[in-house]
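Q: Hi! First time doing this. I have a protein sequence and I read that you can turn it into a structure. Is that right? Here it is:
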Amino acid sequence: MDGNAAGATATNDNVAATEDGEEASWNCSVHPSVFFLLGTLVLTTCATGMLCAAIMTDHWEEVTWDMDKLETLANGSVRLQWLLDRTVARVSTNDMRDRTIAFLVPMHGGIWTLCLSLTDEEIQLLGRVGFRSVPRCVNYLAGGSDGLRGYEPRADWQHRMQNLSISCALVCLIVLGSAALVGAFGVFQHQISAVLVTGVMYLLAASFALFTLTIIHFKRLHIKPNVELHEGPVDGVVSPMGVRGVGELLAARIFTTSWSLDLGWGGVMLCVMTSVLWILLSKIMRFNPISSMIN
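A: Yes, that's right. Below is the predicted 3D structure, encoded as structure tokens:
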């Protein structure tokens, strides 16, 4: 009896020792810093994807029209005809000829694009009542005047802001792409300096993205009405005459920011957090190389 009991006790001790050994082996094979590395890579992917998506989409701002204010501003000087479930207004002369002056349409724009918020079918329907053929989207990066034909040029001061925001956005994309390459090199080649530079580059990308967001957010707050009537932007107006005949109606436009701007703010925050994680990762790798984390 005593021998059997002693044998059972020894067997249990061996099993417990084996389990402890396996658990110790598992704890030794996966260093806690590995989870920090994985978290850094996941957050990096999310930050890069979100910021790139915000820059490449064209819903940073939207242009709509206040119907009640339009009716008040028209005041019988021109005739307004609402079309497409009161989303588009046809402005014509208030006489027997009923000559089309302009179409007041909703639009949405990105950093370097401006698009009509109309489907192809809606544009075809408007063509039956005199809507002129214009490109559905204008790309300011295309260069030349072909893409801008049918749209009134912007004022000089707004040109400068538009070009500055485009420049900052392009630099941000370049920095993000470079940071991804440098970060991959630093992780796979165990280069601490490359990992540290990656953190700095993500902070730099967040700074340029912040400049772009700030410009887009504030560029509509200082429109000069007297200048706008003659030279300013006519976002929301499609007319062969530009602003002539509808200048007094421009006050009814409503400029609002859209979801791309919110996506950009989220991307900036994630980029700052990513920068902090990469800098901390470089400190961790100084004392715990990646090869020792995995082994």
